């Protein structure tokens, strides 16, 4: 119960300000949209199609979780930096988690090809790693983002003794 | 050692080589073959496969206007073998070596299969797509719609599309004769992608292209992590009951490397830069591009519009 109340407090603290709701939306959409394009859930040609096949449902759920956590972590980190003059360490950790999650599964589409064409053999090796360890990387990304989120919530509860009533 | 040189089987023999094509296209395995043949490490037949490759890839071009009669057993002059050895060591130019091959053909020692040449010619173009070196055509060759797939065997999305989505397209269009299906290679995810593409043509040599193609996709396990290396590819050929020694040799000598490179070039010339990419081509040669592993409903709509 205490954990939930801490979450609620942190949420109310940050997202009572409309600016941070907007920031959350920007970060969420900013990651979710490219990921569903790169992982081929959203197609633009020859017709606009959004398609999540049964055999890719786990991948799609991972993308939603990573995008939501990224939106939360980044917007809450910015709040802490602006109002509590905290360090940017957690923001950087959050970004790291997002990048790992976004890169995982880069293969035949945009990211993989870009890596190979720009960085040659090194890019090829990176593509191999990102593809072969897609699920572990996504889990690691969620782990990093989850941990960062937990730390931010804990810090917000500790640093802000605000009576919201 | 004086063996006869009966390269190919069919009766019609062509005489005289008209031109030496770009010598730079001669793959290194042919040169290596020549060196080993000159030192009697491989048989005449093995060396002949290299020559057959040069002819079929049009590195050596042969006119069709003159036909020779049946071939008698003949001996390979020793100077040809010497030439091959010098050529492999770089002491003789490509052009000089090709001249010696011309001699072999002129005197009827080397013959070329007309069947093979005609097969290559007969189904060479679908719209603006050169499919002369593509996979065999799956379905009715005279179907009004052709679905061309550019794929990389290490590409996860390609594998998932073939294993999950293609069945519906096969059932609706390929089996009913409304469309046919052709695969062109676009290997881009490393050396194993190239080997995997070549392996399919090695399987085709033994009459099992699509069996191998589909089986290979069921074995997909990622990128450059061994599932598509030569050892694994040969293992799959054994699983399908192919002659694994012949298959292994085919892969070892990169016998279909130019074929794969050619197909990739066809893709590049049509703006392919990722996989899978499909082109739905109608009988007028017009085409619609479908990028990515899209659902069968998209194919339905495109085919209906074209129909």
Characterize this entry briefly.
The complex is a heterodimer of chains A (165) and B (307). Chain A is mostly helical. Chain A has six helices and two strands.
Strand/helix succession of chain A: HHEEHHHH
Major sheet characteristics of chain B: 4 strands, mixed
| Overall 3D form of chain B | elongated
Strand percentage of chain B lies at 5-15%
Count of helical stretches of chain A? 6
For the biggest β-sheet of chain A, the strand order reads 1-2
| Main beta sheet of chain A | 2 strands, antiparallel
Q: Give the distance, in angstroms, between the N- and C-terminal Cα atoms of chain B.
A: 61 Å
- What is the typical, i.e. mean, pLDDT of chain B? 80
* Class inferred from helices and paired strands of chain A: mainly alpha
* Quaternary structure type: heterodimer
Tell me the radius of gyration of chain A: 18 Å
The number of helical elements of chain B comes to 12
Describe the 3D structure:
Chain A has helices at 2-15, 18-38, 57-84, 89-103, 110-132, 134-159, and strands at 42-43, 49-50. With 165 residues, chain A is mostly helical. The model of chain A has no long low-confidence stretch (mean pLDDT 79). Chain B is an alpha+beta fold and 307 residues long. Chain B has helices spanning 28-38, 44-56, 78-88, 94-106, 114-122, 156-174, 191-205, 209-218, 230-239, 244-252, 257-269, 296-306, and strands at residues 13-14, 19-20, 60-61, 67-68, 125-126, 129-130, 145-151, 179-185, 277-281, 287-291.
Q: Top keywords for this entry?
A:
heterodimer; A: 165 residues; mainly alpha; 2% strand; B: 307 residues; alpha+beta; four-stranded mixed beta sheet; two-stranded antiparallel ribbon
